[in-house]
Every structure is written in structure tokens, then in C-alpha cells.
Amino acid sequence: MIHQYDVVIVGAGIAGLTAGLQASETCKVAVISKVYAPRSHSGSAQGGMAAALGNEEDDCWEWHMFDTVKGGDYLVDQDMAEILAREAPERVIELEHLGVPFSRNEAGKIEQRRFGGHTRNLGEAPVKRSCYASDRTGRVIMDTLYDNCLVRGVKIYNEVFVMSLLISKGKCCGVSGYALATGEPIVFHAKAVLLATGGCGRIFKTTSMSFAATGDGFAAAFNAGVALEDMEFVQFHPTGIYGLGILVSEAARAEGGILRNGKGDRFMERYASTLKDLAPRDIISRAILTEIAEGRGVEGSDYVYLDLSHLRKAMQEQKLSEVTSFVKTYLGIDATKDPIPVAPTCHYMMGGVPTDAQGRVLADGKTQSLPGLYAAGECACVSVHGANRLGTNSLVDLVVFGKRAGKDISNYVKENPLQLFPTDAESAVATKIDSLLASTGNERMGEIRSEMQRTMTQQCSVFRDNNNLKQALNKIRQLKNRFGNIGLTSKGKAFNYELEDALELENMLNLAEIIVFCALQRQESRGSHYRNDYPERDDAGWLKHTLAAKVQNGLQINYKHVTVTRFEPKARVY
Ligand SMILES: Cc1cc2nc3c(=O)[nH]c(=O)nc-3n(C[C@H](O)[C@H](O)[C@H](O)COP(=O)(O)OP(=O)(O)OC[C@H]3O[C@@H](n4cnc5c(N)ncnc54)[C@H](O)[C@@H]3O)c2cc1C
């Protein structure tokens, strides 16, 4: 089946819907989602969205920009961080006018709370900068955008799996994939395509991300020849529910929650004397694992406690209702009485598809654009998060750069004719699906996936070193070979989840290889990328972005400079 639109947006999270809503002012827009659209991961965001509104205490965009740059360990492109911080307040107000029910303070203004790494006056003390709606911020923003998109006539396609970008004469002119319900190929022919497919946390064993976070958008761009940027920077959130990885939002510490080791000590005082439990996530994740490695985990095990028992008031005021209900549901714990067992969980990808400030994809990561292709949200890397993203800075990234992409797409669509798309677009999808369904190899996907997740978690997560990374690279390459010999047991076409699993696993294996490869090259420690064998940050050698591109016999690494405008790199003390 072939559909035709001005613009097709892959991904119905907050980035995709923001861009879609904006573009719908002048364009015919389709939004595609492999899951039922309102189940996109953006709906799980709890804590909030950073913007220097100054509703609670003095704040300004320069401080927000500084915190973003410092939080990202100076790998942030500062011109982009400036846009993020400057435009954030306007975007929050705009969301409010669209109907987002933000929590309010006694003066009737949008209420704001603290979050890790956000400070006043360039690092003096924590500042209340995060705008929120109870602990369901992402849910209400996404639902509001979704409603507004429907009103504007944006067409949403649920349960369509996008496999490839269509490129013709050097321009992107659509996407191809298949309908999960029927297994039949679908082509979306358009003047412009926006990738807004979210992250790829499922590569790791423990993650806070949803099952859909398999990195299909990164992979589609990479396969189309786009170099991926800064893929070695993977964020581990310090407080995943132990054993499950489900997130206990940073909002819990923002409201006063305290991390304690097995001895009951508030250990963060030793690692970040000013911000303590609200230091950036990379620092806290390493602190937790250091406590555990030095024998101060709870009862000799590999977790610590998050103590909320003194926060009855916040809980009664519904500021942490999701958090408390999660731990009740999954652990049977009453957070007003008992501490919550937590450990780091894979949470966010700082790297991704390189774009400029308008969301235009840069194929070589530097200057060469791929006309018609845009990216926004977690799958994109406009480089505002550098080596470590601050909490609540993703939602604001989605709306600031999602909106900018939507605007640029409107102009692009006006000025460019519809390009013919490759004639074999549908048949290529059918061939791929048929060959997977016909596969009879003796490798099982579940085993390959588990081994990939175990390898990535044990050898390429919070602490890394040369030996482990080399072993991980070999292992992932072996798994890629084994994937060539898989056999699908389910042969039907209707809702064949084994087929979908196969396509996702292929993408994840490719991305795992890229992450490990980039991590192996970077011989320094910066933000979320910590090398035991190179424990210092090395600005002389490594203040540069990594670009990983596909070449005939593997991967090619390139680098590009980091844009420094206002804040010269300094030691990161909190
Ligand atoms: C539990 C949790 C809590 C968080 N809390 C916060 C917070 O409080 N504040 C904050 O700033 N950030 C938070 N984050 C981070 C933030 O929520 C995410 O980075 C962000 O929501 C990603 O949005 P997105 O629009 O890029 O993509 P997503 O919301 O992840 O949506 C991806 C979309 O792409 C679609 N898709 C993917 N692959 C395909 C394919 N092959 N074919 C078709 N469709 C496809 C999916 O169906 C989905 O619609 C949190 C993240 C998690 C996991």
C-alpha cells in the first residue's frame, strides 16, 4: 500500500507530535508509530521539564545554559544549549495554552521543583527549575499534543513498523515498512521525513525504557549512510527499582529523598558535597556502584536504598503518587515506611542522528545535509546533552527542537517538489519479511538478545575499560554472525511479534557494536563514559564529538569539534 503526504513523521512521542502539530499549520502530516501512539515512551516521563521561568525563586536562562553545559561535561555544543535554555520558557507557556494541566503554586503560577544539576548563579545551590504535573508530566504533555494533532487533522498510523528510509537522487522522499496487523508492506511517500523514534535502552539488560526503545530510527539513518554522533554516551539513571530497572523518578530526590548505603549512611555527601543527592546522574550512578564494590551495598548485595520515609507531606500532596504506587505494585513496599532498593538502570542516549538547530540531518555529522530528512527528540543529537543529560532537559529538548524542525519542514515542503521514490520500495520490504519468515536456522533470538544485553551490561555500562570493551566488541560481532542463522518458529503474517523481534534485534546488534566501538576509541573519562584505565577527562585530546559511519568493511570513526561560546571547560565539581 502506498500513502502520500507532505511530511511523514516516524514516532508519536512528544518530539514527533510537537513537530507534527507545528507542520500541520501548512502541511498534510502523517505520524507513524509501531506501538499504539499514546503508549509512546514520552508518556512515562514523570519528573518534569526544565525552564527558567523563575516562578519559585530567581532564575535565568544563562544559569540553565551553564548547568546544561557543565552537566554534559563540556561536550555540549554551547550555541545549541543557548537555544534550548532561551526558548524553554516560551515553549512551556505555549504548552500551557494548548491545555497542559501543570501543577500550580499558591500564587497560581506553574509550580517548579529542584532537579539534579540545576543550580542558581552558576553552581551555588540547587534551584527550582523543573515545571511538572504531579509525577505524570510526560503523560499530560503527550495527551494534550495528541488531542491537538487530531483536531488539526494530523493522521496517526498506529502499529506500523518503519524499516527503512527511502532515498532518491540524494534526497529523502519517504519511508517503507509494514503493518503489524497484516505483515503487508507499506510505503509512505513524502517531501520530508522526520525521525522521532526515541532511544534504544533495550540493548541493555536493565533499563527504564519501554519495550519499543530498540533504536530503529538510529539504525534506519545509519543504514542510509548517516554518521551517528556520540553514541558512546549512554546514561544510567541511579535509581532504577532493583532487579527490574523500572524508574523511580529523580522527582523523589528532588522532593527530599535520600540515598543510603548498607550502613544507613547518606553517602552522596562524600561524592558531591554541595548538591549531594541532586548531583548529576553519572556521578550518582558511579557513587552507588563504588559503594557496592567497596562492600557497602545493602546486606552485601548489589543495591542501595532510596529513603522517602520522611516525605509523607510530598506524598500526601500527590507530588510523588506514581513513584509510590510503582513501588507498591512492583515490590509491595509502602514508601512512607520502608526504603526502596535501587540500582543504576539504562535510561537515555545522549548521542544519535546529528542535526542542526532546525532539525535537519547532517549526513556526515558536520556540514553535508541530506535534504528532506529531519530528526528530533531522543534519537537526534543536536548536542545539547553532551556527555551526560540533566534530568528534565529531555522534555524541553523535544519541544524546543521538535518545534523548530516542524517550522523548517513547512518551509522545505513549500519550496520542494515531490521526488519520485525508488520503484522497489515495496518489494524490498516483502523480500525481507519473506526471507525472515522462511528462515529455518537453529539460532534462537531470545538467546542472542539475552547475551547481547548481558554483554552490554557487564562490559559496556557505567564503568568501562579496554579489556572489557574489546571482549564486548568480539562478542557482539559473534552474535551478529549468529543472527545470520536464526530460525523463526512463527510463520504467520498477522501480528507476528517474532518477526518484529527479529527486525528490532538486528537493529540493536548494529547499535550495540557502534556503542562499544566508539567507547573503545574514547580514551578518557567524560560524563557518562567512564574508563577505569583513563580516569581523567582529557580536553586536549578528546574535547570532540565522535561520528560513526558505515563503510564497506565495518565502521569508520571521525571526529568534529565542540562549539564553545560562553563557558570554557572547567573541572566539574558539585
Ligand atoms: C521512565 C522514564 C522517565 C523519564 N522522565 C523524564 C522526565 O521527567 N523529564 C525529562 O525531561 N525526560 C524524562 N525522560 C526522558 C524522556 O522521556 C525521553 O527521552 C523522551 O520522552 C523521548 O521522546 P521521543 O519523542 O524522542 O520518543 P518516544 O516518546 O520514545 O517515542 C518514540 C516513538 O517512535 C515510535 N517508533 C520507534 N521505532 C519505530 C519504528 N520502527 N516504526 C514506527 N514507529 C517507531 C514509537 O512507537 C514511539 O511512538 C524519561 C524517560 C523514561 C524512560
Quickly describe the structure:
With 574 residues, the chain is α/β, with parallel strands linked by helices. It has helices at 14-23, 61-71, 78-98, 137-151, 216-223, 251-254, 268-271, 281-293, 312-316, 321-331, 393-415, 425-438, 445-459, 466-483, 497-521, 539-542; strands at residues 2-10, 29-33, 49-50, 112-120, 125-131, 155-158, 160-168, 171-179, 185-195, 228-229, 234-241, 258-260, 304-307, 340-349, 353-354, 360-362, 369-375, 380-381, 463-464, 530-531, 544-551, 554-561. It is globular.
Oligomer: single chain
Q: How far apart are the termini?
A: 55 Å
CATH class of the domain at 425-561: Mainly Alpha
Q: How would you classify the helix and strand content by structural class? A: alpha/beta
Spatial shape: globular
CATH topology of the domain at 425-561: Methane Monooxygenase Hydroxylase, Chain G, domain 1
Q: How many H/I helical runs? A: 16
Binned, the helix content reads: 25-40%
**Rg from alpha-carbon coordinates:** 22 Å
Task: Tell me the strand percentage band.
Answer: 15-25%
Which blocks of ≥5 consecutive residues have pLDDT under 50?
Answer: none
Main sheet characteristics: 8 strands, mixed
List the ions, cofactors and other small molecules found in this model.
flavin-adenine dinucleotide
Mean pLDDT: 96
Query: Architecture of the domain at 425-561, according to CATH?
Result: Up-down Bundle
CATH superfamily of the domain at 425-561: Fumarate reductase/succinate dehydrogenase flavoprotein-like, C-terminal domain
Instruction: Please report the total strand number as a whole number.
Output: 22
